[in-house]
Design a protein that fits this description.
20 helices, mainly alpha, 506 residues, globular, single chain, 70% helix
């Protein structure tokens, strides 16, 4: 099939998937399989080929990240039961204030934790985001969710040793130090500017908790942490439009978006919903966990992150061996964190609460695994088309500026295959001869243009879309407004920065 027609059919399939999920409220799994079936048949892969690609794509994704998702979600559920996200959220608010939290949060995830696998960061950031956002007002969850995914994806693409950046650097043969010199300033500026733009959009009505969240969090009854920079010294005290949404419906685990809240001095976490007989309902808005030292309860997260960072550092330094393979394996690091969390939880939680935390993690991971696998099936069918060959031909025809065209190709490929890293790498494979001929700083900018373009347009065919939606407890609309819109803004911001840099870089 002609490549342009393949791209057209990919666009139709993606638009159809989004449309039937959002407008017709069809279950995402059904919509994704129908979209994949249409794509396979419309691009001439045949019924048998389509069925085989669906199965192989599902199995490939499960083999790569199945254990990672299962262990990561279970770890998140256990540390949430221990009250770690709640207490970290309170500390962030005290330190940075309401206005500074989104920037500090995005930069922490994108710069400090860039070496942690992106899906792991999504899983670990979910509970923290939910608890911190309950203190930022009615739209806080949307604001922090957008800041989180912007930081995570910018770290993946612009900060050493982000996996997408390191992969592109390796393909082009660019020294890591030279890549860092160009990429880090772009990454930091992209996060700051994007969070500012996204905050402005949220302020002017982008977010609708009743429609964008699965369980809209109630605004705390008491005033949030004071922010000296805010008018009147308050960090967003509730105004006439900041109360709970009257149309909110009950969410999972007994949460409601408009239920009564306990005073902050009652010993529960801010915004916890009140169940029968005044008991705090466990879950995203539940109690702050058992009393005790935070460093102990945060140990599972520390163990996991340290193992990943150590493995990444040793690998970058060229150290090899069995110990490095074990320590640096993401699934192993997550399992170690799960074991530590389980041991601590058994000592400080009741048996019923521990069992509920484990069951909650297993239920959540099951739905994420199915949706993620089906997203992999869609990507496999895209790989069976000749869309990549068609895009490659644009360069042979000398079409446009290398930076502009590289960005466009990477954006199209990311939307098609649903992977930032794969989209960037495929684009680089197409433009590598041009980048090598350019040499010097221009080669680095072309590589960064591929990474910038690959941030654009994360859609429901992306594995991370469903992971993010589930862990952050968003509706499909909410995921489109955060997972899709946030990195897309970052893509445009970084693209403009790269264009400006190309004027002065030789």
């Amino acid at each position: 099939m002609i490549g342009s027609m393949a791209i057209l059919h990919i666009g139709i399939a993606l638009a159809g998937v989004v449309g039937v999920i959002v407008a017709l409220r069809v279950e995402p799994v059904i919509a994704l399989v129908l979209g994949a079936a249409y794509l396979g048949l419309a691009t001439g892969q045949g019924a048998a080929g389509t069925s085989t690609a669906v199965a192989e794509g599902f199995g490939s994704v499960m083999g790569e990240i199945g254990l990672l998702i299962a262990f990561g979600v279970l770890l998140g559920s256990l540390v949430q039961a221990l009250g770690v996200p709640q207490r970290i959220a309170e500390s962030m608010l005290r330190t940075f204030g309401r206005r500074g939290v989104p920037y500090a949060y995005g930069l922490s995830l994108g710069v400090v934790l860039a070496s942690v696998f992106a899906d792991v960061l999504i899983v670990l950031a979910g509970p923290l985001t939910r608890h911190a956002s309950s203190r930022l007002g009615r739209d806080g969850h949307g604001l922090l969710s957008g800041a989180a995914i912007v930081g995570i994806t910018a770290g993946l693409t612009f900060v050493v040793p982000g996996t997408a950046l390191m992969a592109v650097v390796g393909v082009l043969g660019i020294p890591v130090g030279q890549a860092l010199l160009y990429a880090l300033p772009v990454g930091v500026l992209t996060i700051v500017v994007t969070v500012a733009v996204y905050s402005l959009l949220v302020r002017y009505g982008l977010w609708n908790p009743a429609r964008d969240e699965l369980a809209p969090a109630a605004v705390p009854a008491t005033a949030p942490v004071a922010d000296p920079a805010a008018p009147g010294g308050s960090a967003g005290a509730a105004g006439p439009g900041d109360g709970p949404d009257p149309g909110a419906v009950p969410g999972p685990a007994g949460h409601t978006g408009s239920g009564p809240t306990e005073p902050s001095g009652s010993g529960s976490g801010s915004g916890s919903t009140v169940g029968p007989a005044g008991a705090a309902t466990p879950g995203t808005g539940g109690s702050a966990g058992p009393g005790g030292p935070l460093w102990l309860y945060a140990a599972p997260l520390v163990v996991t992150v340290v193992m990943i960072l150590l493995g990444a550092g040793l690998t970058t330094a060229g150290v090899q061996g069995t110990v490095v393979d074990v320590v640096g394996d993401v699934s192993t690091a997550l399992f170690a964190g799960v074991c530590v969390a389980y041991v601590i939880a058994r000592r400080v939680l009741g048996a019923a609460e521990l069992d509920e935390a484990v069951r909650r993690g297993m239920r959540t991971s099951g739905s994420i695994l199915v949706l993620t696998g089906v997203g992999g099936s869609f990507a496999a069918l895209v790989g069976g088309t000749d869309a990549g060959d068609y895009l490659s031909g644009l360069f042979d025809a000398g079409f446009g500026s290398p930076i502009v065209l590289t960005w466009i190709i990477a954006a199209v490929l990311h939307a098609a295959v649903g992977s930032i890293t794969l989209g960037a790498l495929t684009a680089i494979g197409i433009v590598a001869p041009v980048a090598e001929a350019a040499g010097g700083g221009q080669a680095v900018l072309i590589g960064l243009a591929a990474l910038s373009g690959a941030l654009f347009g994360g859609l429901p065919n992306a594995n991370g879309f469903w992971l993010f939606k589930s862990v952050f407890e968003l509706s499909v609309r909410g995921a489109l407004k955060t997972y899709t819109l946030g990195p897309s803004i970052a893509s445009v911001v970084s693209f403009l920065l790269l264009l400006a840099a190309s004027v002065v870089v030789l």
